[in-house]
Amino acid sequence: MAQNIIELRDLKKTYCIGETEVNALRGVSYAIEEGDFLAIMGPSGSGKSTLMNILGCLDRPSSGEYILDGEEVSRLDKNRLAGIRNQKIGFVFQSYNLLSRTTALENVELPLLYSSVNGKDMTERALAALASVGLTDRSHHKTNQLSGGEQQRVAIARALLNDPTLILADEPTGNLDSRTSSDIMNIFKTLNEDKKITMVMVTHEPDIAAWARKRIYLLDGLIVREERD
Ligand SMILES: Nc1ncnc2c1ncn2[C@@H]1O[C@H](COP(=O)(O)OP(=O)(O)OP(=O)(O)O)[C@@H](O)[C@H]1O
Ligand SMILES: [Mg+2]
């Protein structure tokens, strides 16, 4: 049986803005197995991004437990969380989050810039990652000269540089047409099946969610339904 890479136990997140409290997550319990391909769905404001931020160690829950790869991480300080993030997690965002006027290659090298990896190895790894998303011939193009789909592939290549066990993608196809979205999903599928990377993505679109093997639906900060293929 597959191991759980992620276990969430009664996870809650409350945002306080002045006197107002927003209960963005109200008790989420769920296990994600190593090698899963999970889609998180639900209406706007249901807590999807809040959950992704916690899964990505970008934020901490207000209460509950988050066990990532066997380690309880929900109470770790910011530095420890950053360390875990760098070691285990790759991120892909709707808006690509690339530096413009900087080449695809330089963008992909970015995660290793402050590591001990030397320049030559860094470039080799970045080129290999670009090749794995089919962008070898765009390596030296500036990102603002690339199409949306190409930019998202650069972002995926960048997410691969630290050999993540887990990729988190928040609306990765939100700015792309359906044909380009399928290209991106094909890349995710390959990473999941061939490299055994666990994939968790947020999407509004049922035809994108259909690429995942499991789907959970959030409503008002709770998981209200799960589907498995
Ligand atoms: N940093 C924050 N400070 C205060 N409230 C927040 C913050 N982030 C999110 N919220 C609130 O928490 C709730 C859940 O927001 P979240 O961004 O997780 O929703 P979502 O499901 O990702 O929505 P969308 O589909 O629109 O991206 C919302 O009511 C939102 O207003
Ligand atoms: Mg969101």
Q: What composes the largest sheet?
A: 6 strands, mixed
CATH superfamily: P-loop containing nucleotide triphosphate hydrolases
* Hetero ligands: adenosine-5'-triphosphate, magnesium ion
As laid out across the biggest beta sheet, the strand order is 6-7-8-3-9-10
User: Mean pLDDT, rounded to whole units?
Assistant: 95
Question: What is the gyration radius calculated from CA atoms?
Answer: 18 Å
**Helicity, as a percent range:** 25-40%
- Strand-residue fraction? 25-35%
Name of the CATH class:
Alpha Beta
Compressed to H and E, one letter per element, the order equals EEEHEEHEHHHEHEHEE
Q: What is the count of structural domains?
A: 1
Shape from CA axes? globular
Q: Could you tell me how far the N terminus lies from the C terminus, measured between alpha carbons in angstroms? A: 17 Å
Tally of separate helices = 7
Q: Remind me, CATH topology?
A: Rossmann fold
Can you tell me about this structure?
- By secondary structure, the protein is α/β, with parallel strands linked by helices.
- The chain has a single domain (4-228), classed as P-loop containing nucleotide triphosphate hydrolases (Rossmann fold), CATH 3.40.50.
- Helices cover 32% and strands 30% of the residues.
- It contains 7 helices and 10 strands.
- It has helices at 48-55, 78-88, 104-109, 119-132, 148-160, 178-194, 206-209, and strands at residues 4-17, 20-33, 37-41, 63-68, 71-72, 89-93, 166-170, 198-202, 214-219, 222-228.
- A 6-stranded mixed β-sheet has the order 6-7-8-3-9-10, sandwiched between helices. It has a 4-stranded antiparallel β-sheet with strand order 2-1-4-5, covered by helices on one side.
- The longest helix is centred in the last third of the chain and has 17 residues, at 178-194.
- The relative contact order is 0.20.
- Bound molecules: adenosine-5'-triphosphate and magnesium ion.
- Magnesium ion binds next to helix 1.
